[in-house]
Model the fold of this input.
Amino acid sequence: MSGAVTICKFVGTISLGLLTGVSTTLTTISLPALLTLPTAINARTTLSYLTSRNKVLSSYLRHITTFTLFSAYLLSPRRFRHPYLLYTSLFTFASGAGVDYAIAVLKDGPNQARMELDLEAQGDDVNGEQVRQTVEKLQFVEQVRTGVAGVAFAMATVGIWGDGA
Done:
């Protein structure tokens, strides 16, 4: 049983590190680069591709991390059941829909989803200012996700180090 717990902790922490790296790269490199593209059509097309791929990859990594760390928490003997596993899996789970919901309630309201749909439906008549606003809002959301995932990764790293696993 101890081997399964160790593997779950290892896989969860590595997946969480990858999730944090993907979110950080998107925030600091990929999204700012979209604003330098020569036309709004290219920027919108690239933004659509980037967001769809990011949603899939981040979702997989988030689910793997949450499942493995929560499984490690449940499989651990009661005496060695450290709450950092539970907290880390909850932070990872919250870095997805939880961040979207919090930002929608606090900042954007229901307008963000409508704005992205309007941007998709424009066809060849793309307004560059709308693309820029969408990129900047997505960049803010990813910065928040990076922060939440980074805190979870730090907890997982310190927790595994403390476990000696």
Notes: The longest helix spans residues 40-75. The mean pLDDT is 86. The chain has five helices and no strands.
